[in-house]
Amino acid sequence: MDMDNIECVSSSDGIEDEEIQSSVSTHHPSVLHHHPLGTHPNQFASSKPHNIVQSGLAPTSVHELLECPVCTNSMYPPIHQCHNGHTLCSTCKTRVHNRCPTCRQELGDIRCLALEKVAESLELPCKYFSLGCPEIFPYYSKLKHEALCNFRPYNCPYAGSECSVTGDIPYLVSHLRDDHKVDMHTGCTFNHRYVKSNPREVENATWMLTVFHCFGQYFCLHFEAFQLGSAPVYMAFLRFMGDENEARNYTYSLEVGANGRKLTWEGTPRSIRDSHRKVRDSHDGLIIQRNMALFFSGGDRKELKLRVTGRIWKEQQNPDAGVCIPNLCS
Prior knowledge:
Helix content: 10-25%
Largest sheet: 6 strands, antiparallel
Low-confidence stretches: 1-59
Number of strands: 19
């Protein structure tokens, strides 16, 4: 359910993928949406020794040996085999009801120790190398790294639908603007007014998203109403379009008020690695109870009229004094 009327007055302050040459041919799940990033062969340099090819096998042959015939993903220890030597990964072993998908013989509990040793001896680049990750890992450790890799694609931060689009930040900014028609603003201050004719009827889908560009970064400002217990509350919070370690470099403040009263919030923006629902449910933002929201709205308390203002700034380290000083955009 959308807001009946939303007025946004922003106080603006300004405003072919290269082929990766590798010593091993790898099979990586494709990332459908990403902004092309230039990469160079030497970015995969590693101080660790590489046992890329074993026993005279060509790189593609090694990879084919490690490809599960069921899910086609690369196999990691434990690797299972049937009595005829056909292999498959441990995840698919339960899916095929203990029957070999190749010869239909019973699998049993036979491990292919030789192929596991081959897998453990390999070192391969992260599957997100095309997005900029230069790391090389032992074959069996790749999954752990890739689950937390800083270069892995981000999920779309749009909260109004179950959007499944993923990509890097430039791609997601374009996606939000072109596909979700999200308002884009330049500057680190904002001044928004939210109006709703019947504030007593609230659904979890009542929300608003605006994207701000400042300090060379993008931030998502969320405002929404949702049910908390028996009464609705209104919440505003900021998310950083990047990783958590970068988000810590920024601080933001939010303020709402009227009739001689005001509520303020100051905090660090959360990374979009944390889902919209996770941030909302943790109450990490400016929360306005319904009675206070109606008080700020004035009049006969039958219409919600909230003006939310705020600012984003970057903390800079003063090398002489050893303290952080805010860098406010003017």
